[in-house]
Specification:
This protein has 802 residues and is α/β, with parallel strands linked by helices. The strands form nine sheets. The chain has an eight-stranded antiparallel sheet. Helix 13 runs parallel beside helix 14, helix 18 (695-706) runs parallel beside helix 21 and helix 19 packs parallel to helix 20.
């Protein structure tokens, strides 16, 4: 495409777009903005204009001429009709423009030519100056080299004259001198021969010790000659070393005796000379230049540190092998992977051991762990104080857990709960005559297993509420298992003893069958008979809690950075992300920067369970926190950090680790589904979108609904979250043909319109078992009816009576 914009043409010409616009305007080319296009004709017109402006349109120097350009343009003018009514009409008009442009004069052209000639002259002078400097440098180097060669010739001549001045009385002495001179020339290449000759010379001196006085005088002269020769030899060898250290310039070949390879301290590598004579110019490779690699005689076994997650490519790099070799091993193990797919630690260790290497688990400290260690270092255990106990109330649904807490707290929570059952995990602290006690109320419904497990993990003591008329029920057994797994002591509260059908002995027998033996039966568990309706046994229960807390000696440091756990979290429409936290140590203050798993933020407000704003919360005190970046997961630990940067980096790292874990889990699920569905008919899939008011309810609903799946129908929760139903949820449900379930939340206005237009299936619930029952009914209805023909017997018609 030949048309270009004004901006593109300016970039090609190397000028600014504003200057090009001025030139286009001067050339009478229509261009109102940088995005207007210019065709080839306009380019040619602009070129002719510029050549004319610089005097290049004609080769001869002509007098300055005026160039007059005329341009006509047609436009549409909108005018009012003038009738009082707001009507307008368009009028075609023609605009004529006249512009004048002057070409450069002869004087201006002469001045430009003068500047060009001066520039050429300066460039030529600079070139000549550089050439002269180069010649002077070469000449100085040549003179220096000639001076060195002359000095060497003079030294050689001096040595020759000294040798000639020596007394020729004894031929053996001259032979020794010649031998020493020959050794001097072959000093580096023939050291063994020099040692042998020096040994022979020393033996000759030893033999001449018994000679006459005249011979002794001759021996002294010979020794002086030897010393002079050795001195000359050492000076010559030193000069040779100095010349070898300098880089060779224009020299071809090597002089005899020259050494080119030297070590750091001037020592040379000795070589045995094959034969004496003229040194050839053959280049000999020294031993230091030889290749140092040798093929290993045995297999190389490497020790590789395996982190929690490692990709196939990184593992291949650690083992110094191809990634395809690792993929082959994984295929033999039944895994289909790609080169960039992350592997978990156990799988990577198996691969390394399969390849014959050793693997060890790499201890990689995360940023959250490092921050936690720094917080623990600042804690002085000598300042620990007694803290209130954290008590979790657990038991079967409708056994009176919340009613018991209501009596202790002098409140009425049960009447406000949907269906009369607890569906959220709640945290309270109560001032009793025996001291402050923090209570955590957990749901008893079967769907809230994760909540009960979380309550058992954060508590110091578990109160197991068992109804005297129901005895041990399924969730009672589950609560016992949670408490025993967490290693938390229990106190059994036998509730509803005021009812006529109460049977305390049956409760004790059933609990003893689950290894919860009362003290009066020889066990270690306190059994308290209470009634949440009449208040009977409440004081004894508080006394038992106080006694157990004293035995456990619960302490914590108060004046330090706070740490704790997120009990529950939700998304409030007006306040944003809200988290109910329980402080385990330190003091949580308003304005602190906290880190909660994948979320972080500065505390804007601290609220107690009664809705009153507080300034701080100490150990074992629950509080509601506002100001986080998002809704944290229930069960995440929190800690106070020094600045926002540390919190953001740690949260980002936790988010990436969670993403890798989720990808690994999805990959395992895909492979498992692939293997399980081979050779089977395709199951019917029911997609569901779940939105709830708190994180714990989301977990409970998701787990309960997915457990409804059977061999013929699969219930799949494609999306879940905390907060109201928004337009994104509605569009996802429309695209995947999913059922939307809202638990204690409603759809906003935009989402309601989308649901109505797409005719989506939306259900609101406030009681969890109603949601589960309705989804079960939908799954059962999706199966349809199956018609079968069954023969019960045969009959023969023998006659017909009319």
């Amino acid at each position: 495409m030949s048309d270009v914009t004004v901006k593109q043409l300016a970039e090609v010409l190397g000028i600014t777009a504003e200057k090009l616009m001025e030139q286009l305007k001067a050339a009478d080319i229509p261009a109102k903005s940088e995005t207007d296009t210019i065709d080839n004709d306009s380019k040619v017109k602009l070129l002719e204009f510029l050549r004319g402006a610089h005097g290049k349109d004609k080769r001869s120097l002509s007098p300055r001429k005026k160039v007059v350009l005329k341009r006509k343009s047609k436009e549409v003018l909108t005018v009012s009709s003038g009738s009082g009514i707001s009507k307008t009409k368009n009028v075609n008009i023609e605009v004529k423009k006249k512009k004048r442009s002057l070409s450069p004069s002869q004087s201006e052209m002469a001045e430009i030519e003068k500047e060009r000639s001066e520039a050429r002259q300066a460039l030529e002078e600079r070139r000549l100056q550089l050439k002269a400097e180069e010649e002077a440098k070469n000449k100085a180097e040549q003179e220096k080299r000639e001076a060195q060669e002359a000095a060497e010739r003079e030294a050689e001549e001096a040595r020759r004259q000294e040798a000639e001045q020596a007394s020729p009385e004894d031929e053996q002495t001259m032979d020794d001198v010649a031998t020493e001179d020959d050794v001097a020339e072959d000093l580096v290449a023939d050291d063994d021969q020099e040692v042998a000759e020096e040994s022979a010379a020393s033996e000759t001196v030893a033999e001449k010790d018994t000679l006459t006085e005249e011979q002794k005088e001759q021996q002294r002269r010979e020794q002086m000659v030897d010393m002079q020769v050795k001195k000359a030899v050492s000076e010559r060898a030193q000069r040779k070393r100095q010349e070898a250290e300098k880089p060779a310039k224009g020299r071809k070949g090597k002089k005899r005796g020259e050494v080119t390879e030297e070590t750091r301290y001037g020592r040379k590598q000795l070589h045995v000379k094959g034969q004496k004579g003229r040194v050839s110019k053959k280049v000999t490779t020294s031993a230091s230049e030889a290749h140092g690699f040798q093929k290993p005689a045995a297999p190389v076994v490497k020790t590789v540190a395996i982190p929690e997650h490692i990709t196939v490519a990184d593992l291949a790099k650690e083992l110094s092998i191809k990634a395809s070799d690792i993929i082959k091993v994984l295929m033999n193990m039944g895994m289909m992977v790609t080169i960039n797919q992350p592997l978990d630690q156990d799988t990577a260790i198996l691969v390394v051991e399969e390849l014959g290497h050793k693997a060890e688990e790499a201890v990689v400290q995360s940023k959250t762990e490092r921050l936690k260690e720094e917080t623990e270092k600042d804690v002085d255990s000598s300042e620990a104080e007694t803290r209130p106990p954290v008590v979790t109330v657990m038991g079967h649904v409708d056994h009176g857990k919340t009613s018991l807490l209501d009596y202790i707290r002098k409140t009425k929570v049960t009447g406000d709960e949907a269906g009369g059952i607890t569906q959220h995990i709640g945290a309270y602290h109560v001032k009793t005559p025996k001291g402050v006690v923090s209570f955590i109320d957990t749901p008893g419904h079967a769907a809230f297993t994760a909540m009960r497990a979380r309550g058992a993990q954060v508590t110091d003591l578990v109160i197991l509420v068992v109804a005297a008329n129901d005895s041990v029920m399924p969730q009672t057994k589950e609560a016992i298992d949670h408490a025993q797994a967490a290693g938390v002591p229990m106190i059994v509260a036998i509730n509803k003893i005021d009812l006529p059908e109460a049977n305390v002995d049956k409760v004790k027998q059933d609990l003893a069958a689950h290894e919860v033996v009362p003290e009066d039966w020889g066990g270690d568990t306190q059994f308290i008979e209470v009634s949440a309706h009449t208040g009977q046994g409440i004081d004894e229960l508080l006394e038992a809690i106080s006694l157990q807390a004293e035995v456990m000696e619960l302490t914590a440091v108060k004046d330090t950075a706070a740490t704790g756990i997120v009990v529950e979290s939700s998304l409030d429409k007006g306040r944003g992300p809200v988290a109910t936290v329980l402080v385990k140590g330190g003091t949580l203050r308003k304005g602190d920067m906290i880190l909660c798993g994948e979320e972080f933020g500065r505390i804007r407000s601290l609220i107690d369970e009664n809705g009153q704003e507080i300034e701080s919360a100490g150990p074992s005190i629950p509080a509601v926190v506002l100001g986080l970046s998002g809704v944290p997961l229930a069960g995440d630990e929190f800690l106070v950090v020094k600045n926002k940067k540390e919190a953001r980096d740690a949260a980002q790292e936790n988010r990436e680790q969670e993403r890798e874990t989720r990808l690994k889990r999805q990959q395992a699920a895909k492979l498992e589904n692939l293997m399980s569905q081979m050779g089977k008919e395709e199951r019917l899939i029911v997609n569901i979108v779940v939105k709830a008011d708190v994180q714990g309810s989301v977990e409970a609903l998701k787990d309960s609904l997915e457990n409804i799946s059977n061999d013929e129908v699969e219930v799949k929760v494609i999306s879940s979250g905390v907060g109201g139903i928004n337009n994104a949820d509605a569009q996802l449900a429309a695209a995947s043909n999913a059922i939307i379930i809202g638990f204690n939340v409603r759809a906003d206005k935009v989402a309601s319109e989308t649901i109505k237009e797409s005719d989506l299936d939306l259900h609101y619930f406030s009681i969890i078992y109603e949601a589960i029952d309705q989804v079960k009914a939908a799954v059962t209805g999706a199966l349809g009816t199956e018609t079968k023909e069954q023969i019960l017997g045969t009959a023969e018609v023998r006659d017909v009576f009319r």
